Amino acid sequence: MELNQWVDELFEVFDEDKDGVINRSEFVELIDCLLQDKGIRMCETIFNRFDKNHDNSISKDELREMVIDLAL
């Protein structure tokens, strides 16, 4: 599976309210899933790092950047 397809699928799963962004509570679930044992304490730092426009949500482009940076 290519990166863009993987990000699209992640985004669809974790954008639970289907509003086109991942809010903080959805982000916590995403990070918990991706990082598992590393804990939720990292969520705030990671969220702030990748919420580039500081709108308190993660866009698909911001998620793509996060996945590239953290997972690859």
TrEMBL record:
InterPro entries: EF-hand-dom_pair (IPR011992), EF_Hand_1_Ca_BS (IPR018247), EF_hand_dom (IPR002048). GO terms for molecular function: calcium ion binding. It holds the Pfam family EF-hand_1. Residues 2-37, 38-72 form the EF-hand domain. Gene3D superfamilies: EF-hand. This is EF-hand domain-containing protein. It comes from Cognaticolwellia beringensis.
